[in-house]
Amino acid sequence: MASKPHVFPNAEGLLLCSRCKKYKDKSEYNVHRESTRGYQYWCKRCVADNKVVWRRENKERNANTERRYARKKLYGLSDNDYVILGLSQDWKCAVCGIDIDDLNGRDLDIDHDHLTGNIRGLLCGSCNKGLGYFKDNVELLEKAIKYLQKEV
After folding, report:
1. What is the pLDDT, as a whole number, of residue 4?
2. Mean pLDDT across 104-126
3. CA separation (Å) from 41 to 31, 33, 49, 55, 56?
4. Domains, the chain, ordered by start
5. 118-125 long-range contacts, Cβ below 8 Å, gap at least 24?
6. What's the mean pLDDT when you consider all of the chain?
7. SS3 at position 12
C-alpha cells in the first residue's frame, strides 16, 4: 500500500502542503490534534492566503460575523438581545432619532457606561462618537450646549 505524501513526512521529515504542493518543515504548519499527522494539511501561508481570499469574496458575511462576535464578546449581547433592544427603540438612534434604514447599511452602535459596563441603548455612529468625545461627562455636554446657544 503506497503512503499518502500529504499525510506522512518525507525522508527529511518535511510535510507536503496539500494546497501549494511544497514540502515544508513542521514549524510551517499549525498543530491539528485530530489530523492523522498531527498538523493541518495546509501550511500557514496557504491558510493565511485562503483567509484573505475568503474575506474578499465574502465581505458582507464576514462583517456580519465579526459584528456578532464583537457584540457577544464586548457586551454579552446575543443576536436576539440586540434585536429586542432595537425593537424597543423602533430601530432609531436613542439620541437623534435617525432610523436604521437611513444609516447606509450600518448597524446602530451599542452605547454603554464605561464605568459599569451597563448598556444604555443603541445610537447612530455620530451620536455614539459624540458622547465618547465628551467622555460621557454631563457637565462638559452642558457647557457645549451653552456654547452652542451663544449668539454670534
Report:
1. 61
2. 92
3. 10, 12, 14, 21, 23
4. 15-56 (no CATH), 61-149 (3.40.1800.10)
5. 119/75, 119/77, 119/85, 120/94, 121/85, 121/89, 121/94, 122/85, 122/86, 122/89, 122/93, 122/94, 123/93, 123/94, 123/95, 124/93, 124/95, 124/96, 124/98
6. 90
7. coil
Q: What does each C-alpha distance from 35 to 8, 21, 138 come to in angstroms? A: 11, 18, 57
How far apart CA 5 and CA 23 sit, in angstroms, is 10
The grid coordinates of residue 143 equal: 457647557
For residue 60, pLDDT beyond 90: no
- Record the cell numbers describing residue 36, joined without a space: 492523522
Count of Cβ atoms closer than 10 Å to residue 85 Cβ? 18
Report if pTM > 0.85: no
Q: How confident is the model at residue 1 (pLDDT cuts 50, 70, 90)?
A: very low
- C-alpha count within 13 angstroms, C-beta hemisphere, residue 91: 9
